[in-house]
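agent> Task received from the user: take the single chain below, predict its 3D structure, and emit structure tokens. No templates, no multimer pairing.
agent> Plan: (1) validate residues, (2) run structure prediction, (3) serialize to tokens, (4) report one or two observations.
agent> Step 1 OK, no nonstandard residues flagged.
tool_call: predict_structure(input=
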Amino acid sequence: MIRPIPALPVIALASCLLATPALAAPGLGDEVYGATVEPGEWEIETRYGILAGGPDAGEGNFRLEVGYGVSGHTRLAAVAEFEKEPGQPRKLEAISFEAIQNIARIGPIDVALYGEFEAVRGGTDQAEAKLLLEYRDRLTDVRFNLKMAKPLVSGAPVELAYAASADISVADNLRLGVTGFGDLGTFGRFAPYAEHFFGPTVKFRINGIGAPLRVETGYMFAIAAAKADTKGMFRLNLELEL
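)
tool_result: status=success, residues=242
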């Protein structure tokens, strides 16, 4: 069954499709978003990624996100992003505001739209949109995000990228899987030789500390063009549910 699409949130999100360039390393400080929303739930999340080996070793990205499920279909969040170049101190790079709108369930697949406005410190503000797809059952969670991003400046091309993950429950509060990020070029030059990262992921949940803490960690290997700059990427995401 396909649910009707609320007009106002979709218009706002769709406008982002016409307008952030991809990160220097795809997936650095990012996540693979799900297409479902938990209503009335606050989430405080930190995401950390750092490159290991190669000329860009030590380049890192840290993000702090606070989000709230406004309804069973809509989630709003604010994000502070900090970047670190090798040999340099960490600095605030941008403040972002994002929204996820679940728009349909087509068979077993949940579909959502993601929109983000990013205010870049000392740089060009940018906007981003994603198509979020998710299949989830009792044991399995498979996600795919298609990203379209553009600096808010005339003439800049729309950059395309993807994020994907698949994991399965292997024990109580423990999931194992694989995660990947990569660049897809632009509409005018689709799927060129570009940077990609793939690797294993471990997800587990810690209870008994007042609120459930979700932990996601893993190492992704550099593939294709990414191998010229680094050997891989370490990622650690922490999410506290309130």
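agent> Step 4: summary for the user.
The first helix runs from residue 7 to 15.
agent> Done.
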